[in-house]
Amino acid sequence: MKQSRRATITLLVASIVTAIVVFLPLWWVFVSSLRPGNTYVNYTTPLSWLAFIPIGGDLTNYVSVFSGPFLIGLGNSFLVAGLTILLGLIVAVPAAYVLATIPFKGRGLVFSFIVIVSMIPFDAISIPLASLFQNWGLSDSYAGLILPALANGFAIFMLRQFFLGIPTELLDAAAVDGLGRFGTLWWIVLPSARPALIGASMMLFLSQWQAYLWPLLIGTSPERQLAPIALANLSTLFTVDMGQILAGSFVLSIIPMILLLLFQRQYTQSLSSTGIKG
User: Fold this and answer.
1) Domain ABC transmembrane type-1, which positions (predicted)?
2) Judgement on whether residues 90 and 12 belong to the same structural domain of the protein
3) What is the C-alpha separation between 162 and 31, in angstroms, rounded?
């Protein structure tokens, strides 16, 4: 009994320490963003415990950063990420459903190809792909920002693994009742697949929310810049206002965390359903 209690306390302490280590850099960014201009360096050279205490700060940097192009970029990021989730699921759900429920020759080969391709870093193919998009007239457009993120192999993988766990008896009963494959997917499979859909949506969202190289290469105008590009543009050759940059960085970091906290249970369920299934 004592050993079990000791182990529980040890795990609790380890979890708290890990949480502090993970959260501390983000907290420092928040505290530093409350300090005007570059005055945050007064507490980092040498490092002082005051660097982590929001004393004498205000929201001036947030007011300034939201008064400029960053606000437009943030709206564009939400728009692009939202469309990517919607259109990405329209692509991923049928692909995963076919790979999970319809036997056909070469199904395993197709699935393996999708997984292997998804492991290739997008940055490795972004430069030649940007040239193709420019030739196709897709540069400086929302379509050019969204299209490369639609066929997300990890989203297809997650959904397929979830669909494999659906009892075949349920699918057979739907077929007996006269539901076609689309009807079975819409009325039987999708209502029970909410955790997997949320997990896939988070992957699609993060693929766009943290994108930097591709929006930079596609050459978007200020009206269609995403938030990371607008944030980087706050640093110029002559001025670098780290207060505003830190404020924008905190906003870009906290939004995915809020979404993850809101859908934590469903996201965890989606990850737990992606075990090895044939």
Assistant:
1) 74-263
2) no
3) 41
Which amino acid type is present at position 113? F
The per-type count for the chain, helices as H runs and strands as E runs, is 14, 0
- 93 vs 137: CA distance, rounded Å: 29
Query: Which residues neighbour 202 within 8 Å (Cβ) at sequence distance 6 or greater?
Result: 259, 260, 263, 267
210 burial (CB, 10 Å; 0-12 / 13-18 / 19+) is middle
Residues 137 and 134: their CA atoms lie apart, in Å, by: 5
From residue 13, how far is each of 16, 24, 52, 92 by CA, in Å?
5, 16, 21, 40
Task: Kindly state whether residues 146 and 261 are assigned to the same domain.
Answer: yes
- The conformation of residue 68, written as its DSSP 8-state character, comes to S
**What is the residue whose two structure tokens read 């699918």?**
171
Range of the domain at 54: 1-58
In this structure, what token pair is assigned to residue 73?
């970029």
User: Are 179 and 188 spatial neighbours (Cβ–Cβ below 8 Å)?
Assistant: yes
Per-residue pLDDT of the chain (278 residues; tens, 9 = 90+): 666 788 888 889 998 999 889 899 999 999 999 998 888 888 887 888 888 988 878 899 999 999 989 999 999 999 999 999 999 999 999 999 999 998 889 899 999 999 898 888 888 899 999 999 999 999 999 999 999 999 899 999 999 999 998 888 888 888 888 888 888 999 989 998 999 999 999 999 999 998 999 999 987 788 899 999 999 998 876 778 888 999 999 999 999 999 988 988 887 877 766 654 55
pTM: 0.89
Residue that is last in its domain, among 19, 43, 58: 58
Using DSSP, state whether 121 is helix, strand or coil. Answer: coil
| 39 assigned to some structural domain | yes
122 plus 30 within the same structural domain = no
